[in-house]
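Sequence only, no structure available. Ideas?
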Amino acid sequence: MLKKTILAALAVFMVWSALDFVIHGLILKSTYEATAQLWRPMTEMKMGVMHVAVLIAAVAFVSLYARLVAKRGVGTGLQYGLWFGLATGVSMGYGTYSVMPIPYHMALTWFLGSLVQGAVGGAITGGIVRD
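Reply:
I predicted one. Tokens follow.
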């Protein structure tokens, strides 16, 4: 089970990293540029810290599933991921929107992106860590 958990965590990390690039580097690129005053300049970004944060999140996501979900499979993983994505997406998108002057488009994209990342991560986890 440990090997499956590690494999799933690495797979989720890689997919989430790729989706982060699509969401933040492509879809929201112009929005980040238009709100540059809110963010660190690219030369000051802590990308190593960001990668470690995504890795820890992937490990926690998969470990919670592996340790706490009794009936495992792709369908269960997808449901788990959707609930996770809903919780993190509301917090990230709309929680941030409530306290920072970000455009609504950014909040919505963060929310939907988190929902997609959760669903995909859950399906991957359910496919690898299963009964």
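The chain has one domain: 2-128.
Hope that gets you unstuck.
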